[in-house]
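Reviewer 2 asked us to include a model.

Predict the structure of this chain.
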Amino acid sequence: MYGFDKSAPERLWIMVKNYARLDFGDSFFRDAKVIDLIKEKMPVSISLGLWSTLIMYLVSIPLGIAKATRHGSHFDVWTSSAIIVGYAIPAFLFAILLIVVFAGGSYFDWFPLRGLTSNNFDELSWGGKILDYFWHLALPITALVIGNFATMTLLTKNSFLDEINKQYVVTAKAKGLTNHRVLYGHVFRNAMLLVIAGFPSAFIGIFFTGSLLVEVIFSLDGLGLMSFEAAINRDYPVVFGTLFIFTLLGLIVKLIGDLTYTLVDPRIDFASREH
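Predicted model (structure tokens):
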């Protein structure tokens, strides 16, 4: 059953051949194929990872630019204080706080406590399904974003500060270009390289590791929760299958990040380099 009657090289070859076809075998405890379980749980993890990362970048980049252009001002000081507080408190603690305040705890009952959709989701209209979907995601995504956007905000600020103090910025201003033109026409491209470099780790971190406890707290049955339960139950096919998918997606996201370099900064041309 487990293949231990075969030699190690033969077992390795069988595993590589099966994994190339995304055949991870059957779960020991769930009585289903591992690939079917991954397909079933993937929408939850993609929803959390994709929207959290998108919102985090939409908040972090403008905030980091605003802090860089107002470096040392009252705005920079109090936003830095808020960022440090948000960074110091774990996402799962924010999740519990949000449940207590907004999900029928001690104060308001504005958001659902569990699940990705309502029980009557199939009966809703197209617009109603979209609203119901984001209604359920509002609190989990808020918990993830609050605890994770601090690093990206400070990275953006420091990248822009480093570029703003360079000689080409002084030259551009001396030629009569406006601050807006200098900032977004010249500085933005160069400063965004470091921000793009941090995208793969940010996405993978939120997609898998960061959402585990949030999935548990909000009863969202995603890949993080499934892989954790599989490790506890020693469900090895699920453990190795999810690990393979995590690694594959991580490599793809990093490759996309490298290719994005060339779009942001045309000076980076890998093909023209001498070997």
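The two ends are 49 Å apart (CA to CA). The chain has a mean pLDDT of 80. We have added this to the supplementary material.
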